[in-house]
Amino acid sequence: MTSHNQRNAQTKRSRNPAEYPVLGILSSGPVHGYDICRRLGEGIGSIWQLGKSQIYALLAKLEREGLVIHERVGQENLPAKNIFSLTHKGEQVFKEWREEPVYHMRDMRLQFLTKLWFVGQSDPQRERTLIEKQLAACREKAEVLARLEDLCRTQVEALSIGFRLTVVRAAISWLEQLPDLIKEENPVG
User: What letters, b where the CB count within 10 A reaches 16 and e where it falls short, cover 147-181?
Assistant: First the structure.
């Protein structure tokens, strides 16, 4: 029998990462598909490009899973449109994703930056918390890799671990500077 945490971990692994930005846009209120596309393009389009057909397919999947619902709304002189909203379950899934650090360095560019953008949109004071969580995850990964580096038996294994460790250390350095970079970008007042 699997525990609740194991089922949660399995669900997270099977979820398409592109679902989270869609959930994130819906977290600010009901919206139709075209506006989701537009808002994502304006917000994170430079780092994560989601096409209209992809977004509509994701919305259908999210609705089947009970994370999103839609209401058909008539328009004068125009065809009716679907307005999508998050369910309570959808809100929870998005919030859990947004609040946790990424654990694979390959996910830093897309997922971490997207999480940071959504946190900045909803509660800029929590950016520091997300950065600190990410720093802790990266430092833990660096410690594990440093121990593995000492145990390498072949040169290629040592080179592989060394490369991964260099990437993690670069991410740590960048994360340590990030609060100042964000302040420069978004001056208060």
Answer: eeeeeeeeeeeeeebeebbebbbebbeebeebeee
DSSP code per residue over 66-113: TSEEEEEEEETTEEEEEEEEE-HHHHHHHHHHHHSPP-SGGGIIIIIH
| pLDDT tens readout for residues 87-129 | 999 999 999 999 999 999 999 999 999 999 999 998 888 999 9
Q: How far apart are CA 73 and CA 180, in angstroms?
A: 45
Let me know: does 63 contact 70? Beta carbons within 8 Å.
Answer: yes
For domain 1-99, give the CATH number. 1.10.10.10
Nearest CA to 39 out of 106, 117, 113 is that of 117
| CA torsion angle 83 88 93 96 (round to 10) | 130
Task: List the 68-75 sheet strands across, edge first.
Answer: 31-32, 78-86, 68-75
CA 161 vs. chain centroid, Å, equals 26
Prediction pTM value = 0.83
